[in-house]
Design a protein that fits this description.
The complex is a heterodimer of chains A (298) and B (323). Chain A is mostly helical. Chain A contains eleven helices and two strands. The longest helix of chain A has 32 residues, at 2-33. The chains are: A mainly alpha (298), B mainly alpha (323).
Amino acid sequence: MIAQIFQQITSGIAIGSIYALVGLAFSLTMRALNAINFAQGDIFMLGAYFGITFLLFLNLPFWLAILATILVVSVIGILFERIAYKPLYRARLGRAEHHVILIISTIGTGIFLQNAVMLIWGPDALAFPKIFPKEPMNILGMLLPVEYLWVIILAVFFMLTLHYFFQKTRVGKGLRATSQDRETAALMGVNLSFADSLTFGLAAAVSAVGGILIAPVSFATPTMGLAYGLKGFTAAVVGGLGSVRGAIVGGILLGILENIVTGFISSTYKDVVAFTILILFLLIRPSGLLLKPPQQKV
Amino acid sequence: MNIRYLKVAFVMGICVLLASLPYLGVNPYSLHIYTLIGIYIFLSIGLNIIFGHTGQISLGHAGFFAIGAYTSAILTAQLGLSFPVAFVCAGLISLVFGLVVGRACLKLEGPYLAMATIGFNEIVRMVLIHWEGLSGGPAGISKIPNASILGLTLSTTQGKYYLVMVLTILGFICYRNLMKSNYGKQFTAIKENHLAAQAMGVNTTRMKIIAFGLSTLYAGFGGSLYAHLNNYVAPDAFSFSESLTFLLIVVLGGMGNILGPILGSVVLIWVKESLRMLKDYNMLIYGFSLMMLMVFAPKGFAGINLSFLWRWMAGKNSTVSKS
C-alpha cells in the first residue's frame, strides 16, 4: 500500500512538473504582457513532435535533440508573436473587447498549428523512442520508476536555468523590469519590442521542454494541446497566475492529485478532476495559493 | 414611401423566399445546409445575448448545446415522449445548468471566464463519453425519432427545413424584442461600463445571470433541433471547436448587432462548406484566416451600417425617421 502511494506520488510529481512547465509558459506571458496565449498547448504539442523528429528520424542524441527542439520551437514562438500577437497588441489598447480578439487570434493559430502537424506528421499518435532506462530502481523494497525520476530532474534543471536567467543575467533583469513597469523600463534602455518577442520565445521554449519530457508518459497526437494547455493553465491558476514559483507548486500539486485519483478512484474521470479544480480555484481563490488577492480598483 | 413599410416589405420578401426555397429546385443537400444554418442562428443568438450584448465571453456553449441535444434525444428515443415536450424540456434543462454555471462563473472576466467555460465544455464532453448508461458513450444515441407536431411527422428534409425555419424566425423575433426592451438596454449598459451601470441602478449580477440563462435557453433549443435534424447525437459534435464556431459567428456578424447572428451564420457556414473542397487543407486555412481576420478586421460586419440600404431603397427625397 505504502509502496503504491509512493509510486503514485513519484509519477504524480513527474507529470506535475510537465504541467508546471506549461503553467510557467502561461505565467511568463501573463506577467509580462497581461496576455493569455490560448495556443500555448499547441506549442507544447509542437515540442513533442519536434522532439520525436529529432530523436527518431534524425537520430540525434538526447541532449542535442532537446536543444534543437528548444531552438526551433522558440523561433516559432517568436514568429507567432510577430504575426498573430503584436499587430493586435497595438490595436487593442483602449478597446473593451480587446481580449476577445486576442483569444480568437491565438485559438486560430492553435487550429493552424494542429492541422499543420496533422498534414506533416499524419493524424495518428506517434510514440517516442526509449530515452530513459525503463527498469525501476529498488530502494528499501520500494520500486522507483527511473524514467519518471529523469523527467523530474530535467524539469527542475530547466526551471533553475530559467530562474538563473531572470535573476542574474542582464537581459533577464531587463525582462523583469519590463513586466513591472513598461514605460520606466523603456526609459532605462530596455528595447520593449525585443523584450516582448523574447518573452514569447521563452514561453514557447519552456512549453517545448514540457513537450519532450512527456516521452515516458504519453504518445504525441496533434490534438493533445487542448488538454495539456488547460492543465498547464490550471497549474498556473492554482499557484497564482503570473507567479513563477506558483506555477511550479500548482503543477506538482495538480499532478499528484490527478495521479492519486487515477490510482485509487477511477482513471476515466481524471481530466474532469483537473478541470473542476480549475473552475473551483477561479471561483474561490482566483489569485491562487501564493499570490495575494488583488485590491479592486475603480 | 416610408422606411418602416420598406423594412416590413423587405422582411416579408425574405420570409416568402425562405418559404418557397424547397420549391425552387434546391437539392436536398443544400436544403440540409440551410436547415443547419437555422440551428446555428439559434445558437449564435444565444451567445450574442451573453457575449455580444452583455459583454461576458463564453467558450462553453457547445456544452449547453450538448445538454439540449442529449435531453431531447433521451426523452424521445428512450422515454418515448413527444417532440414538443422534449423541445421545451431541452431548453429548460439547459437553462437550469446555465443558471447554476452562470451563478458561479460570472464573477470572472475576460480570459479567466473563457478558460472556466472551456473547462465546463470539456467536463460535459467527458461525462457524455464516460457515462455510458445515460449517454451511450462515445457512440452516442442513434435512432432519434423524427419530430412530429400535432400528428404531423416531419421526416423529409423539407419538413425539417420548415420546422427549423419557423422556430428560428419565432426565436429571432423574441430575441429582437427582448433586446429592444428594458432588459436589452441593461445588458448593453453592463457591457459598456460595469461600474457606471451599477451606479445607475442596474443589478449587474442579476442581469448577467439572466442574460446567461437566456443564452443557454437558446442553446438548449438549438440542441433539441439538432438532435431531431440528424436523428443522431454523439459527443464529438460538441467539442470546444464548436463553441469557437459560435463565438466566431457572433464576432463576424458584429458583437451586439441584432442581425449579427443571421449574417454571421450564413457567412461562416458558407465559408466552411466552401473550404470543404480543400479536404486536408480545410482546417489549416480556416485557422489561418481566423488569425488574419482578427489582425485585419477585428470588428466583423459590425462596421457596416445597414441604414444606407433602407435610405437608398426609399429614394433620395424621403424623410429618414430616426426611431
